[in-house]
Amino acid sequence: MSSILAVCEQFLASAGFDRTPWLAAAFAAGIGAWFALPGPWQWGALIAACLALSLTTLSGFRPEGHFAYTRLALLMVPLAIAAGYATVWSKSALVGQPAIERPMVVWIEGRVLDREDQPAQDRVRLTLATRILGLDGAVKVRVNLPLAKSQDGLDKGAEVRMRARLMPPSPPMLPGGYDFARTAWFSGLAATGSVLSEVTVLSPPPERRGLQSTQQSLSRHVRSQLDGSSGAIAATLASGDRGAIAEEDAQAMRDSGLAHLLSISGLHVSALIAVAFVVALRLLAFWQWLALRVRLPVMAAGFGAATGVFYTLLTGAEVPTVRSCIGALLVLAALALGREALSLRMLALGAFLVLLLWPESLVGPSFQMSFSAVIAIVALSQSKLVRRWLAPRQEAWSMRALRHLAMLLLTGVVIKLVLMPIALYHFNRAGAYGALANVIAIPLTTLAIMPLITLALVLDLVGVGAPAWWLAGKAISAMLSLAHFIADQPGAVTQMPTMGLAAFLLFAAVGLWLALWQHRLRFLGLIPAAMGAIQIALLQLPDVLVSGDGRHVGINDPVSGQLLVLRDTKSGFVRDNLTESAGMSGAIKPLAQWQSARCSRDFCVASLERGRHDWHLLIARGRDRVSERSLAAACDRTDIVIADRWLPSSCRPRWLKIDRAMLSRTGGMTIDLNDGTIRTVAQGQGKHGWWREP
Predict the structure, then answer these.
(1) Biggest CA pair distance of the chain
(2) What is the mean pLDDT of residues 264-268?
């Protein structure tokens, strides 16, 4: 044991063991473990094990004695894991809202808590506080109102009455899909739905001139100055209102790797705070009396902080914006104190504060992408090779510009490599040319688009902002043209089937290993990274996909590269879930038109050849009554039966019966016929409050 501790001590002493980043990583690991482990027994056991390890270490802890680094790690890291575990468990118990039991159509009366205009989807989204039969106290529900039924007075604080169809927040449609039920649980939403009647305003909203009304007025003003997509994106950058962006433009931005420019986050907040800091510093320097008596960087940092906080509140104070604002404020504090502005220690402190307030954000793509990108930037900028490359030297300005341009491209490539596993895990797709697109789009946004929008708004105060709006529109159009051009290139989007949690955690651990250590041994992390990349490249497309309600079935046809669907739905949500989980680009074909399938009004029979075995599937598609004897005979001749109804016990296929009874326990599932692997939604849910076991 002593020799093992000696090796660990030597490694920690030489590898630059910095407590703050590793404690933040351990805190995050505790939060992640709570989501991954299935139930209270496992949660309690992990906390007990962490506390036991820390107490055991504390009993023999000597800071100045032998193995000081190792003892400190064994003492603090388990405590940080337990603290993260307790934080997310406590928040889930405090804010979690049970969902309604079943879909219902009811009359509801309530108060409007929030209004979100979404003209691109031709609707208005209202969040209400109301009472629902079967639930204790007032609850939050979110309903979509057609834009044509919108009226004056439907603002925050209004008392309204309407007839609505309400649904419980939906779990993932397929394994690895978006878990809206989990998001709704931490948001306090008990139901979502749509308005079926006219909305009656029982009492108008109070007269308010707060930031929300300012945000809405600013968004409408910007869209009145610029038409179409340019106006929608300008309104997003100015006020955070994304509801007017057309879906084709949003998809092009995602596929080109520029979607982060449409989310008010680190880039926008940091750019605005930096401009406010520099402008305030320059202007204050003209005041000689003040410059001789006060540290101007401290005052300029105060102006920058006030600007960042105001912009964060103005754009809705969403979690990504607040997270970015906290990080920017920490950078300002470091500048004011004369410390290094951008370091892993400052980043770890920002991540800890965010996770302390919103621990559930750890499992979302926004937190993972933003902090992973900044970790990559900081780790790259602090490497010895990069510092030597960017060190000042006697050279022409053109060579210096080329070196910085090459560094910008390298940074984009590194960020893209870091973010690709996250994008593939959450969205089953990732843009391949994002690094190149960002080299052009980020300077265009920070140096042209945002300054022009700000200038236009200032000039509008005296009615002469038209020229600045025209220039801003041209710059936004250029960015959109770049996004569409990049997205339309062959191979621009990498499609993959759903990645397993184990592979994703492997990439996360490798990323932290490479970023947080300073010793040469950190490059050993490239070996498991390469193994993970090979594992992703060898992922097999699922053969059969079944939604949680059994109504939607997809079959992968490797010959044509198309996804065969039982029902040709118009729902973009259903189509996207099926194609993304199948790792396909979106080409679908009705099963009834496939040459290896025969369909009647009630059932489809399909034959799949996988390896040396022919699989026979019987899939229900109708709702009419079927003779039990005929159904039992058909089941005997098939390997897999899939139905969105309860099937009698006499239906006994050769391998698998997927009916309403089974799907109520498992949720949606994917099946790999080559090795008989079945993945279900229930496998990743455990006994958390948002997953309702039958």
Answers:
(1) 98
(2) 65
